[in-house]
């Protein structure tokens, strides 16, 4: 029985020493910074089909894909606008044959989330691009991620347009705020 008593005595002394000792740990704070990135919007695969010379207005149809990426880290939301210039004639059949920007229109399609959630990311009805037109937007608290959107387009070529190439410039802009 003595052995048991010694063991209990040693255990009791060890427990008392641990309880009486000051704390041997410290609370350290660890921080992690997250830096903001950019918002970007770009188009790819722009195509417009050729149309024949005609005595009536004809419409060329096309499409492209809009890609949007929000790495700003703000959650402020964003909007993408597009605008096109007049289509300038390049050919040897005359002059002053440009096609006005008002003849070009778009119909934005559904938005697909590549990463992030498409909740709160909304396509618009589109319209003519002779002035900036919002084609997609993300509400505040939404749109943090990558998204794609198919956009259908059409260019009404006036009757008796000259044979040649007509070139317009599409400007795509992304801004904070829906």
What does this structure look like?
This protein is mainly beta and 178 residues long. The protein has a single domain (39-176), classed as Sandwich (Immunoglobulin-like), CATH 2.60.40. The chain is 11% helix and 44% strand. It is built from one helix and eleven strands; from the N terminus they run αβββββββββββ. The strands form three sheets. Strands 1-2-9-5-7 form a five-stranded antiparallel beta sheet, with no helix packed on it. A four-stranded antiparallel beta sheet has the order 6-8-3-11, with no helix packed on it. The radius of gyration is 32 Å and the shape is elongated. The N and C termini lie far apart (82 Å). Residues 1-17 have low confidence and may be disordered.
Which structural class should the secondary elements be placed in?
Answer: mainly beta
Main β-sheet, spatial strand arrangement: 1-2-9-5-7
Count of strand segments: 11
CATH class membership: Mainly Beta
Q: Give the tally of structural domains.
A: 1
Major beta sheet, specifics? 5 strands, antiparallel
Low-confidence stretches: 1-17
- Enter the CATH topology name: Immunoglobulin-like
> What value does the Rg take, in angstroms?
32 Å
Shape: elongated
Helical fraction equals 10-25%
The arrangement of helices and strands along the chain is HEEEEEEEEEEE
Ends: how far apart?
Answer: 82 Å
What is the typical, i.e. mean, pLDDT?
A: 87
Count of alpha and pi helical runs: 1
* Assembly classification: single chain
- CATH arch. level architecture: Sandwich
Beta-strand residue percentage: 35-45%
